[in-house]
Design brief:
Shape: globular
Number of strands: 8
Low-confidence stretches: 216-222
Number of helices: 9
Order of helices and strands: HHHEHEHEHEHEHEHEE
Mean pLDDT: 90
Bound molecules: S-adenosylmethionine
Helix content: 25-40%
Distance between the termini: 49 Å
CATH class: Alpha Beta
Structural class: alpha/beta
CATH topology: Rossmann fold
Length: 222
């Protein structure tokens, strides 16, 4: 582990770094637009880290956060335990994204990942796609926000992204190809204005397979 990785693995340092780079308006945009969910929705946050997104769902949705780092999960629980009520209180489980508990607790109206896919190798992303595809409700949505290599990005953005702790940052086609092995209707869009520094994020979305209507090719949606 490098000194930088060791520093970032400390809760306070990581949070200070994130708060410095991510303006509150961007956090709102991510939660209220990109990871939007209707009241009463069942929501799965895979690789939830410190549970930064949980407050947006508390008291409104059935939110489940999964992360394999016990330290992060402990912080997530502590920060969110007082929010919501009954089954609308955010719940956190320490597990790998591939753990059977993910399927046992489904289905979900929204399955989202914030900055997790670039920590997973190609096989892990394919497995994850196959695992979550059947867990989406009929009108459900899969969404992931990831750093991306983009031909139009500034060199500083590219260098920052290349220095990320995650070893599997891809271009848009790289993420989409892997996810499309199991998730139909994968779309993506690049955002270059979420951080206070030059950076490129990719919002990747997918919807569950729908039944083909007569005369309509399989996989098309209205
Ligand atoms: C960059 S952090 C993002 C945390 C959170 N989603 C956010 O946006 O604040 C990536 C998170 O993914 C988690 N993670 C990575 N690989 C995982 C895996 N295989 N299973 C569960 N969690 C994983 C890490 O522990 C870490 O909390």
């Amino acid at each position: 582990m490098t000194i930088r990785e060791r520093l970032l693995s400390q809760t306070l340092v990581y949070k200070a770094f994130k708060n410095l780079l991510l303006p509150p308006a961007s956090l709102r945009r991510i939660t209220e637009e990109m990871f939007a969910a209707d009241d009463g929705a069942s929501v799965l946050d895979l690789g939830c880290g410190y549970g930064d997104y949980a407050p947006w769902f508390a008291g409104r949705c059935r939110y489940l956060g999964i992360d394999h780092n016990p330290g992060y999960l402990e912080t997530a629980r502590r920060r969110n335990a007082h929010l919501g009520h009954g089954e609308l209180t955010p719940e956190f489980i320490c597990a790998d994204v591939s753990d059977p508990v993910v399927a046992e607790r489904g289905p979900y109206d929204l399955i989202f990942l914030g900055g997790v896919l670039h920590h997973l190798d190609d096989d892990q992303v394919r497995t994850l796609a196959a695992q979550v595809a059947p867990l989406l409700t009929e009108k459900g949505r899969f969404a992931a926000l990831e750093p991306v290599f983009d031909p139009d990005q500034r060199l500083t953005a590219r260098l920052l992204i290349a220095s990320d702790r995650g070893r599997y940052v891809r271009d848009a086609a790289g993420y989409a190809t892997l996810l499309s092995t199991a998730l139909p209707h994968v779309t993506s869009e690049v955002y270059g204005d979420l951080l206070r520094v030059p950076y490129s994020h990719l919002l990747i979305e997918a919807r569950p397979q729908t039944e083909a209507r007569p005369g309509e090719p399989v996989g098309d949606r209205p």
